[in-house]
Structure formats: structure tokens, C-alpha cells
Amino acid sequence: MDDSFTLETLLLHADADDDAEPGIAPPIHASVPFSAATAEEFAELSAEPRHERFYRRYGNPTQARLERLIAEAEGAEAALATASGMGAVSTTLLTLLSAGDHVVAQHSMYGGTLGFLRDVAPRLGIEVTFVDQADTPAFARALRPNTRLVMLETPSNPLLRVTDLRAVAELARDRGILTMADNTVATPVNQRPLECGVDLVMHSVTKSLSGHSDVLAGIVAGSRELIERIWQTHILVGAVVSPYDAWLALRGLRTLVMRVERQNAGALALARFLQAHPGVAAVNHPGLPEHPQHGLAVRQMRGFGGLLSFEPHGGREAAERLLSALRLVRRSPSLGGYRTLAVRPAAMWALELSDEELTEAGVPPALIRVAVGLENPDDLVADFERALAAAGAA
Ligand SMILES: *Cc1c(COP(=O)(O)O)cnc(C)c1O
């Protein structure tokens, strides 16, 4: 669509040109097989890659609308929707990598992505080197002649560290290596990795893009050629998004810009409040001038996102008391929804690690991660103020 339109307008109109139906809201196409009127048409349906009206594992008109909208939002030629964010990660990695290949990835990435790289990739003969994302030259040092892919995620979770997308994309491109960025936390409202030279951008659509904590879906976007290659693997892997989820995600996307702007404002207000509170030892949010990479975040991002983390004084017990004392905020692991959710990431680690081991792994035991929702920022700050007092964190 005409790229002079702003993102909020694109998200309302970019899927309208394939409107076969007069309804303003799009239909849900539930049928698995589609029929052809003639032998010639059937031959075309079955032979053309990514046909929307052949068999649902190959594609579907509701899914195609979702793909078109997110491709527009990310400035990509094409996109492929999947059953989950992990569906996008695993299908893409299985497409791009073979035995004998090498991947460079960040230490700090989504747990599922790390799990694939640590547990599945080695079994397929794929080697992985993990580097500190804040150390750009470390990416260059880790590259090998057989490196095929550099995996990025920024800001990362739960410490909100920032990766220099332009610098890493450039050093990979110079050597003919592909880059892929997980843009789930930032969203295309705040950051567009493809504009920074990254080749592929992926999302857990489950989070901010759908935005209502009721959809499981993923997407990967990039050049038409790369996305078609990923699709060839996708129809064999079968991590296909349900058209009902695709439809709900489309509905959520219409209000993405307003929701993310509200989350940006809420997270910044809460981060500033916590930064000034005597009961808080540390706050991590890229929008704070105190963040060690604030300058890079300002250059790379238009807003800083709805995610932050902080450490109250008093260790893990004080952190758990604080979580229990919050009234508006539920103890829950997701992000990007309409309600504010908080969790102590160390509590999600299956192993019982010591405080020292957790801190070394980048998950201090008292750290609380907050995924800010759409509440009025004043109500949210007041809830944290009261809960900090109740937890005796000061
Ligand atoms: C949730 C999440 C994923 C995985 O997405 P699912 O939809 O749960 O499979 C990947 N990356 C990030 C940053 C996430 O937050």
C-alpha cells in the first residue's frame, strides 16, 4: 500500500484491496480445502506457491490478510503467519540451517528460542556461539566461515538490554550472513529492524500485536524469496495458525499503535517512579537516562515499549510480598496484553539456583518483570507505591 500513510492508517486499510466481501469487518475463512471449477484452475491452485485458496495448511484468506498487514507494518515484502512465535522461530531455523552450519546468538533471548538453539540445534549438527548483545565487536569475533545466521532480540527480556541492530546487520551482511531479529518486545510501533538492515523480523503475535491475551500466533517477515523458502518448510512442519486466531489478531492489530503508545507512556511513568523510590535497588528500562544503553535506544527506537524490570530491596521474599500486594497487577508470565502483568523471572527457572548463580545468569533473584497494560499510568503507579509500602521493601 501507499507508504506515505502512517502506521496507524496502514493497519486499518492495508488489507482492504483484496476485499471480495462487502462487510467492513473481514470474514473468518474456516474451510480446510477449497474447490476448483475446472481442471486448469485446480492445476493452478495446487502448483502456485502460497496459494490462499487450496488447502489450509498451505494458506488461507484470513491468514493472508494478517500476513499482509504485518508485512506492511514491518516494511517487508512478505510475511508468513504461524501457530505461535515458537512456530515462526523453529520453522525459520529449520529452513535456513543444515548440519555443519554455525549460528551466532545473544546470551539473552526468549527462553524457547534459547531452548531450540541449546537442545535441538546441536542434535541436528548445528553449532551455536552465544555473545553479549551489548558488545557489538563480540558478534564480529564469533563469526566463522560456516556462520549462516545471526539471531537478535532487542530489547531483551528481562533485563531490557539493547542490541545495535544497524551495526550487527552491517557486519553480517558484509560476510553474506543472514540476520533475524525478534521484534516482539519493541513492536513495529517502536522499532523496525528491516529498516536497520536486518533480513528477517519475527514476532510472537501472541503478545502486543494481538494485544488481548487470547491469541496464540507468530509471524516471520522479510523478502518474498526468503519467506517463500520458509513456507516450503512450513507446509512440512505444519505449525499453521488457526483462522480464528488470525482473525482475532487482525482485530487486535487495528488498535496496535494506540495500545503501544499507552504502554510506552505507562512503562516510562512507572520506571521513573521506581527509579526515584528508596525501596528500589535497580530499574531496567531503555527509556530511562540511567539505562547504560539509553543513547543507542534513542537512536534505534521511537518509543521504549511496555516492558520494564526492577529489584526491590529485601531479596526474593520482599519481591514475592510485593507481587502479592499488587491489586491491579496479576502474577503472570506474558506481555503486551491490555492488563498489566508482573512476574519474578527467577521463579520461572525450573532449577533451584542460588542467588549468586541467578545473578550470574542475568536473572537476579529479586528481579520483578512488569509488562505494562493499558491502565491509566497514575493508577498503576499508585498500586506499586502502595504495594512497595506493604511489602516493607524500603
Ligand atoms: C512469547 C515470546 C516468544 C514465543 O512466542 P509464543 O507465541 O509463545 O510461541 C518469542 N519471543 C519473545 C520475545 C516472546 O516474548
UniProtKB/TrEMBL annotation:
Essential cofactor(s): pyridoxal 5'-phosphate
Catalytic activity: L-homocysteine + H2O = 2-oxobutanoate + hydrogen sulfide + NH4(+) + H(+); L-methionine + H2O = methanethiol + 2-oxobutanoate + NH4(+)
Keyword Nucleotidyltransferase belongs to the record: no
Gene Ontology BP terms: cysteine biosynthetic process via cystathionine; transsulfuration
Any one GO CC term of the record: cytoplasm
Superkingdom per UniProt: Bacteria
Alphabetic keyword roster: Pyridoxal phosphate
Modified residues (N6-(pyridoxal phosphate)lysine): K207
EC annotation from Swiss-Prot or TrEMBL: 4.4.1.2
Molecular function per GO: cystathionine gamma-lyase activity; homocysteine desulfhydrase activity; methionine gamma-lyase activity; pyridoxal phosphate binding
Family: Belongs to the trans-sulfuration enzymes family.
Designated name of the protein: homocysteine desulfhydrase
